[in-house]
Design brief:
two-stranded antiparallel sheet; about 290 residues; mainly alpha; ABC transporter involved in vitamin B12 uptake, BtuC
């Protein structure tokens, strides 16, 4: 029983990182129906940039506060340069386009930081032992920050006028324009939100899971799988899907074989596509502007 609880708790921490990345996918798709395959690269870029900032003598907290806005700016600039000029954007075009952006970002990170993975210094705190279960302080940081950020993003998208207006651009683009909502501006903001959650995922996960130039590939895939559980439209289900995926991976690694860990995401994606391709949500939430 202790082993099970240990695996579940560690899986929740890993899944919280997946959930934040999944929020980025949904944040963009629910506004413009763009599948952003560069989402995982925001996390890798944030982690590596924060590591370099700390190595240059910047305190850990200051490095994080510096890097997260930087990645948001990068995400917005890439949207302005590569996404906004495309007149007829479809999900297929967005996949091809953002795959190219992802490849370019990986190449840049490889040239700057090299192939070796590295991690941020641990956040302050002491590990705990509760009922025989070892709880690392880093995992508590991950769960706490992910909960705060996830709640803030869901709240902003579902309960603020700006969030509802942004989502209206995807559901009723013509009506949105008629009432003065600019889809171009909404898309730019959505990419900024995606850059923010991706950067947060990258910096909080780096002390435990390390960062490397190709870290975003696996992270982006697993975030995408979690997002598909909500049909790429539900932020709540995407976050929960990330947690479930992290736990499943840990259970498979602990009770079956660590070599099958990464196969869990592919299996879940396959099941979703075969059984319920629209995701686990019954219907898209209504939007009132």
């Amino acid at each position: 029983m202790t082993d099970l609880l240990q695996l579940v708790f560690s899986g929740l921490a890993q899944g919280a990182v997946y959930g934040l990345v999944a929020l980025g996918f949904v944040a963009i798709f629910s506004v413009r129906e763009i599948v952003n395959l560069a989402q995982g690269e925001y996390a890798a870029l944030a982690g590596l940039s924060a590591i370099s900032a700390v190595a240059a003598g910047i305190p850990l907290l200051a490095a994080v506060l510096l890097v997260v806005p930087m990645v948001v700016v990068v995400a917005v600039v890439l949207e302005r340069l590569c996404i906004a000029p495309v007149k007829r954007m479809t999900p297929l075009v967005s996949i091809i386009l953002t795959l190219g952006i992802s490849t370019a970002l990986k190449a840049i990170m490889l040239l700057i930081w090299g192939p070796q993975g590295r991690g941020l210094p641990p956040f302050p705190g002491k590990d705990l032992l509760v009922g025989g279960v070892s709880i690392r302080s880093q995992e508590l940081w991950i769960l706490g920050i992910a909960a705060i950020v996830g709640f803030a993003v869901v709240r902003a998208y579902e309960h603020t006028l700006l969030g509802k207006a942004m989502r209206a651009c995807a559901e009723q683009p013509i009506a949105a324009r008629l009432v003065g909502i600019s889809p171009r501006t909404a898309t730019m903001i959505a990419f900024g939100v995606a850059g923010f959650v991706g950067a947060v995922a990258g910096v909080i996960g780096s002390p435990v899971y390390f960062s490397s130039w190709d870290y975003g590939l696996a992270l982006g895939l697993k975030g995408f799988v979690a997002a598909t559980l909500g049909g790429l439209v539900s932020l709540r289900v995407a976050m929960a899907g990330g947690l479930v995926l992290g736990v499943l991976e840990n259970l498979v690694a602990g009770y079956v074989d660590t070599g099958y860990r990464d196969a869990v995401a592919f299996l879940v994606l396959l099941l979703v596509l075969l059984v319920r391709p629209q995701g686990l949500v019954l219907r898209a939430p209504a939007v009132r502007v």
